[in-house]
Design a protein that fits this description.
Elements: H1 3-21, H2 23-40
Length: 41
Amino acid sequence: MRPTLCVLKYVLSTLNVAVVFYPSVNSFARIGICLLMMVRR
């Protein structure tokens, strides 16, 4: 496998752990991403 793919899988796994343990942080991150997308337009 390519190293970029490995890094991507590692990031996804850590994100899944964060989603499981920090639902409030996940919702806050979603709001932040939505705000960033709105600002970019």
